[in-house]
Amino acid sequence: MALVNESYYQPPFFLLSGIPGLEESHIWISIPLSIMYGIAILGNCLIIHIIYKNSSLHEPQYIFLSMLAATDTGMSVSTLPTVLNVFLLNHREIEFHGCLAQMFFIHTFSSMESAILLAMAFDRFVAICNPLRYTMVLTYSRITQMGLAAVARGVGLMAPLPILLKRLPFCKSIILSHSFCFHPDVMKLACGSIHVNIIYGLTLVLCSFGVDSIFIVLSYALILKTVVHIASREGQLKALNTCVSHIVTVLIFYVPLIALALIHRIGKYHSPLPHVTMSNIFLFLTPVLNPLVYSVKTKQIRNALCKRLVLKVQL
């Protein structure tokens, strides 16, 4: 009886879900998913390698980009085992503590990415609004501190999430809506009071993603104000062109994130398809598109990549 009560309080495992209504096609869906994971991991690792090997790219803008690529790699690695297990092998079980660990890493890397995007916005702000002090403000030690602060904030804010979930009884169901563990999804399976979890989750969103997005918008408002006062049209376009890649990356990250948060908190759907679709867009497309955006839109990265490929071919 003690074992029954213990399992009633804390299930030994959860069951992950794929895409509702397309269960018979999961094996075929696994093919593009595998390709996307390959592009995400190889693309971001290539960005890191290129920046590390080229001393001309050891500048604040590219160091922050390597941090972003490392975060995207961590995000992909966090979800890859369970997603491919579900779609490729139809293995849906995930151990309870393993689920909490995966959830922690997914949310931690998301918070870190948001902080790094803010740091990149600050980099563009200093470069355009105060270029003479650029190297004085963004020193290597300060960049390192900003990176460590992003990691510390992510770990510190997200560490209570699994602890708060672990204290709850789970007696409604063990079936999750996604092919990975996501905090709102796991939280809804609890049959105890989740008011603390809801309040803390909302606080996390406001204190990390909310604050970051406000400062990013403020940075670009100041950048736009500075650009408007540049005398030549060519100078204005050149200044704005240095921000295009970052703006696209911010939109890729924040638009699905905001949509997913709204769906989980205020969306009422009979079908779980909207939840699944937006969560997959957020977790899969961001690591895939970021290296492609910077490879296409950033001349220095593109040139270094071409040189690296030419050397490989010659060898």
From TrEMBL:
<feature type="transmembrane region" description="Helical">
    <location>
        <begin position="243"/>
        <end position="263"/>
    </location>
</feature>
<keyword id="KW-1133">Transmembrane helix</keyword>
<feature type="transmembrane region" description="Helical">
    <location>
        <begin position="27"/>
        <end position="52"/>
    </location>
</feature>
<dbReference type="InterPro" id="IPR000725">
    <property type="entry name" value="Olfact_rcpt"/>
</dbReference>
<keyword id="KW-0716">Sensory transduction</keyword>
<comment type="similarity">
    <text>Belongs to the G-protein coupled receptor 1 family.</text>
</comment>
<dbReference type="GO" id="GO:0005886">
    <property type="term" value="C:plasma membrane"/>
</dbReference>
<keyword id="KW-0812">Transmembrane</keyword>
<protein>
    <recommendedName>
        <fullName>Olfactory receptor</fullName>
    </recommendedName>
</protein>
<dbReference type="InterPro" id="IPR000276">
    <property type="entry name" value="GPCR_Rhodpsn"/>
</dbReference>
<keyword id="KW-1003">Cell membrane</keyword>
<feature type="transmembrane region" description="Helical">
    <location>
        <begin position="100"/>
        <end position="122"/>
    </location>
</feature>
<dbReference type="InterPro" id="IPR050402">
    <property type="entry name" value="OR51/52/56-like"/>
</dbReference>
<dbReference type="GO" id="GO:0004930">
    <property type="term" value="F:G protein-coupled receptor activity"/>
</dbReference>
<feature type="domain" description="G-protein coupled receptors family 1 profile">
    <location>
        <begin position="43"/>
        <end position="294"/>
    </location>
</feature>
<keyword id="KW-0297">G-protein coupled receptor</keyword>
<keyword id="KW-0807">Transducer</keyword>
<dbReference type="Pfam" id="PF13853">
    <property type="entry name" value="7tm_4"/>
</dbReference>
<dbReference type="GO" id="GO:0004984">
    <property type="term" value="F:olfactory receptor activity"/>
</dbReference>
<dbReference type="InterPro" id="IPR017452">
    <property type="entry name" value="GPCR_Rhodpsn_7TM"/>
</dbReference>
<keyword id="KW-0472">Membrane</keyword>
<feature type="transmembrane region" description="Helical">
    <location>
        <begin position="143"/>
        <end position="165"/>
    </location>
</feature>
<feature type="transmembrane region" description="Helical">
    <location>
        <begin position="275"/>
        <end position="294"/>
    </location>
</feature>
<keyword id="KW-0675">Receptor</keyword>
<keyword id="KW-0552">Olfaction</keyword>
<feature type="transmembrane region" description="Helical">
    <location>
        <begin position="64"/>
        <end position="88"/>
    </location>
</feature>
<feature type="transmembrane region" description="Helical">
    <location>
        <begin position="198"/>
        <end position="223"/>
    </location>
</feature>
<comment type="function">
    <text>Putative odorant or sperm cell receptor.</text>
</comment>
<dbReference type="GO" id="GO:0071396">
    <property type="term" value="P:cellular response to lipid"/>
</dbReference>
